[in-house]
Amino acid sequence: MPYRLYAHWLDAEYRRSRSPVASAEATQRLLKIHALLGTQIILSDVQVLDSPGVIDCFEALDFVRFIERHPDMLGFAAGSDSETDPTFSILTAGLRRTQRADWLATTLPTREVKRFAEIVLSRDATILQHPNSSAALSTLLIECPGLVAVHRAMKHLYLHSETVTRSAPPAATFTPLLQQAADQLSHLEDSPTHARHHRLIDETLKFINERTGPAATRSQILTHLERDHSGDLSAATITPIWHTVVHAWNSNVQRSVAGNGGGSIGDLPEGAPIGYYVDEPRDALFPASSPPAWSRALAVAGLDIDPGVLSWSALEELRAATDKPRQSYQDALARGDSLQVHDALNEHLSKLRESLKTQRPPEKSPAGFLGLCYITSGVLAYFGYGVGTSLVAGGLPHAQNVLLEMLNSGERSLMVSALRRAAQPKHDHQHHKQPVDTDGTHP
């Protein structure tokens, strides 16, 4: 059973808040790394409708062929009370959400998405398998081609119902998560980053409580921010508040859909990364010009190629050639033994390197590397060029603080587990205590 990971960076508002081109490239790279490692990416009800990353994937026929052969890479979770065709009911939870008057799409035109929802909800699951059974849907798919990818995604998930699970609905408000993060910060060592994040969370809570009310949806909060005419919020304040809201909203969804899995926090450096404070930082993917000085010495020989430049067809061949070591790696992660993770990941990457030799390498592969680090065990692997710089031993607390700084500077995503941490006293020099469980989330 692969690890289940809710990817915050697939959220449409994450993508909208960053450079569209850079974000699209980073999303594809992350998805391809997860495909090589065997992660299961759990989609939420909104992501399957409105995520530019998901839409980009299902617009590409080579990805569609890949996911048909490896359906366990994607999962879906949402709340549903219906027992009549529960898979269809769970998959259409997001469609029912679009029927609210204040619901707004981010990626595709809102009117067309709402119309798509109305048509699908008026029928049964046959419409997912046979879109031509509805003249209205056929016409809409011609008028709005982006919805073809949405339909493909929903059809794929319906046909692979073993990847679709029922989850509890997200909490009605995410303000308790903001308060939890603020409480956690009040017990941590003072630092400029912690102080800034505490201030941002306080400002966000104040804005929500005074302007929108705690029950406001994310769309309602955005509308209030965009229409603020009071003069007491500058543009420099509005963006950090919005980014903090996006972080909190995704952490709230993660708790609903990921179960015992975890989340991957994207880089919105102007906001406070709520997931970092309310969950347990475990591992990270990051780019750098040289390996980080805080890594412990359990280095794993990596790949001399950036997985982001590989096609989905090439990834399909690599997955087929590395099925056994990939499964061994996933089993090691489930057991939680860092030495077993180290050995299994080494074996898996060695097999990938061997398999890459049989393929014609891409003509262009960017310089530099991506690091994959399990911060609780010190296991460090590389993707791309630049391997060879010496590693310097460092402690877990320092590693976690450095990862926070990297996330804050927009360098890369940080993976967290759903483990809730007890607040720690300021005199404790560890930023976080060593986790007591062993089911950490990998990127």
Detailed description of the structure:
- The chain has 443 residues and is α/β, with parallel strands linked by helices.
- The protein has 3 domains: 4-166, no CATH class; 172-282 and 397-405 and 417-443, no CATH class; 295-393, no CATH class.
- Helix content is 49%, strand content 10%.
- It is built from 20 helices and 9 strands.
- The protein has a 9-stranded mixed β-sheet, with helices on both faces.
- A hairpin with a 4-residue loop joins strand 7 (369-374) and strand 8 (379-384).
- Helix 12 (175-185) packs antiparallel against helix 13 (192-212).
- The longest helix is centred in the middle third of the chain and has 23 residues, at 235-257.
- The protein starts with a strand and ends in a 26-residue tail after the last strand.
